[in-house]
Amino acid sequence: MITKFKAHGFTVFSDIDMSFSPGVNVIVGENGTGKTHLMKAVYSACSIIGKNLDRTLAQKVNAVFMPDSIGRLVHRTKGRSSGEFTVYRKKEEDEKERSITLSLTTLGKAEQKSVNWHEDTNPEVTFIPVKDMLANAPGFRSLFSSKVLPYEEIYLDILDKAFMPVSRGLSKEREKLLKHLQIAMDGKVVNKDEKFYLKNKTGNLEFPLLAEGYRKLGLLYLLIQNESLIKGSVLFWDEPEANLNPKLSSAVVNILLELQRMGVQIFITTHDYVLLKEFDLATTPSDNVLYHTLYKENDAVKCASTSVMSEMSPNAIDDTFARLLDTEIQKGLSDL
Amino acid sequence: MKLVTDGYEFDFAHAVALYKFDEPDKSNAHYHGLSYCMKAVDVIAEFPNFQLWIEIKDYPQLRLEQIRKGEKGRSGKTIVREIQETLKLKFRDTFLYRYGEGCNKKIVYVCLTNFNNKECEDFCKQLKKEIPAGKKGPRWSSELVASEHCFVVDIHAWKRNFDSIFGTCKRIQ
Fold it and tell me: Which of A103, A142, A118 has the alpha carbon at shortest distance from A54?
């Protein structure tokens, strides 16, 4: 379970200290406030947990962020500078804190320090990027392994997850979730020769012919089916609402909340009022949902967190509705 | 002119009249004596060219949550639907009062609430249908109120948009 993220002089963050919910973390903020950077940094750190992994955090961060050089991830200031971020986690069964820090300089020096970080076996950690990759899956992984492609590694990682074989003996809860998804997208997902299809009573429909919103649900279907999302796993989902009709938001939110109840820690970013509202409506008192607002104050990105959606402040989404409301009011007042 | 009512203080420098519609004091000039059978908006302000009707609908947090979750009220309908039906009736009865009083100034209707901006927009859209605002029956010569003169706002939207036109509004609780 990820407990905290601290950054000083890393990308947009001059100085930030965030604490997370063990359940769902909903991250909201205007463009350029570091929502995706935060998730990518924490995801990179989670990806290198494990005794037998020889990959460094700097290598993973470099592959996930794809800067021209790793020193470019230092917060921009005049002259040479340095920055760092630290991710903290705990295991449910003990109170021992684990942490990993990546320190960077603008000259490209990277140093990693960790405390108990590698003690555990690698947990399931999944990052769903904004753009769908299932339709482009055939051949992508072999191409990625042999050529230098301008794709962040999260795209390769998510395909690796999607291609994991189906798990045997799914629990009743999982079967129930899959059933919900089948109803929402009118079919189930099958994989033949590295190609994904939506299978229903009318036959198999190729993923490239499928609406992108359904492809997202299809990906979620695969991740539940192959147990990438199990107790103790971490899911990062960048803008679930992208290309998703608002009518499907309720299905997505209910599935995320159910996964949280099953012990999956979830991080999502969103710009969408409907998705937030669905969370607000579907959350029960025993659910753990924390809303984090990233906002700029005097050119520094700050964070405010609350468990009550209506108390989010500042709220870039509500501010946009305020502007729309004001425009409409001013139009109505023009003849008084 | 100032008026304090229902947790708000209104200060309208350019109003020619400002009063609480359901005035309980029989000696007050604005006492109308029909509260037993008719509903009314909370505040009336008269300006030289228009009349402003203000309905105050602030809810405690618990009630707001019930509204947001779409919970049902005593009638079996959702609470938000019940509120809209009440506001519709209050608007129409006020319309009759003012008709009886011979006031035919343009109506501007404001529901002052503590919904968020998106909720204000959604609520206003539905309320306009209910009143109805911006629509007239086939044999009517005019609509009850222009659609563009029907607003649902919170205190912040009031400050941003109405302070300079109607006057200020402050929460006093």
Answer: A118
